[in-house]
Amino acid sequence: MMKNGKMFRRAAAVVLIVPLSIFAAEQRLKVSIQEILSIGALDDEAIFQWTGVAADRDGFIYVLDGLDYSLKKFDAKGKLVKKAGRKGQGPGEFLAPRLLACSEDFLYATDQTVLGISVFDKDLQFKKRIPFSAPLTDLFVRSDETIAIVVMGFPGPGKIVVMDGSGRIQTELAYYEKDAGPMMDSVSAALDGQGHFYLAYLFQDRIERWDQRGKRLWSKNLLGIKKVEMKKIGDYVLPTEVCYKDISLDDRGRLFVLAGKHAKNPSRDVYVLSPSGEWLSTLTLPDTTHCIYIDRQNFLYVRANEGITLKKYRLIYE
Amino acid sequence: MRTRGAKRGCSNRASGRGGRAWLALCLFCLWPVPASLFTGCSSPSPEDTARLSASSGNRTVCWVLFDFDSLFCSPCLAPLLEFCRSLPVPIQEEKVRGILVYGARPDRGQDGLYARIVQKKMHGFAKANSLQFPIVLDGLHVFNSLVKSSVQVLLFDDVKQTVKAYAFPLRPGERDEIMQLLLN
Asked: pTM higher than 0.80 for the full model?
């Protein structure tokens, strides 16, 4: 009897949760992809483990490689044009290269173990390091005078900081003030043309839009996750299952969200949302990826073969 | 070793005025002389010792176990890499073998493909870190439990006929012990 009661409550919970999640909803837009370019194969030395990617208006693709500590430049056909960097903590060197962004003239790269942002020109010459005293979890560059970073919320709360090219802070957005535990406020972020921030929480079922003044415009949960799995690691109890891995915006301001562990196809499903947060479609990638990046020409870049391959796709909307 | 042309040239000069001096100069230039005679250093360099040791009868060898997951963690591997780089190149080439240990990935389906991906990544890592010894893949996953127990170096002591296991960071004296066994 007790068992039946429990089962009924579970069934009721499922009935309540499922309509809220995207799995049962109908697609309002069909998004598909067409492969344009593939860089890196098993038998070449082009890429060993790419971590960050950026593309400029001329079609050049820039890649940070975490296994040979380098920044690489490929032409539009995928030919390696130049490679810079080596292992170290000096100017232009890397220990664990991670995030990459580009403006009209410069490239901005971060290192997981070295604080600050390294700036290179398009010829991969190191120019300067913008100082910053905390680790970053995301980076996006609108211009050389508007560089937005997501500061890792550990142990304090995470925040988004907008600074100029010299590291002078212009605005700060404290998007998550409640102390919900370490790393619970880790986000991937994107910035649209109107200055709105989109946040996808790594360890919570939350996608949000904020304005520049720090006002939350909307908040969505697509997965129906109520409880976050936690594990004691050392002195801390930390979340272990990633809800959303990355977000990026297309040329019409639609939001692409890469889903994590709870998705039907983990690290392959990409949810497409309208600027107002409506779910429009789910795109399933052929291979798992750790990040998604959409360039200014609306091409999508993702990982394949565990990071030794970079794929460039054209986005097709129907 | 003198060349035939050089010898002929020296003979011609030696017949004239100051011939001895020319002969001495020619001999000085052409005869192989140990570099240590001029540098004032009579003891062989570590590289020379290593080369001699590598080609001698000492068959002590060292296996270095790399955990694939730790390749992406610079601080985790720093002590092991520092140790590897401190070994003279001839010793690395002759007496050290790397073994890349990785977990099977059933979700990848074809283990062969995943193994090739792992191998390529290790190649990039080894090149960027100037590792001079060959590194093979533990395709049967026989070393996984050793790596889980933090063992990173196995030393096959040819003199005592024993196997020694070391974890990193090494304890005081262990580095010298390994070096001595490999070099002697």
From this structure: yes
